[in-house]
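Quick note —
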Amino acid sequence: MRAFIDTLGPVWSEGKLANKAISAMTSAMNAHGGQEQTLMSFYATAIHWGSIVAAPGYTDPAVYKTGGNPYGYSHTQGQPFTDEAKASIRGQILRLLDVARRMKA
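Predicted structure written out below.
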């Protein structure tokens, strides 16, 4: 992923990533595999681009049922996508869409 992000230099330098709403999700092999740090690192890059981070925060109660990560959904690989996980993902997507709509308005 970092290699892909590094290819975006020309797009970033033209300002094409500025003022774009973004949100991220991640996964790792174990429950404490650095998921929050991965998201924060990505968001730091997006902030350099001038993107607008639309992390879920605690705006949806579903976040608490999947570990309470306010930076974005994180999945432990090999675990099933439970209804709670799907609800958390759905809540994050709806937040991103809401932020993008507000930015457009």
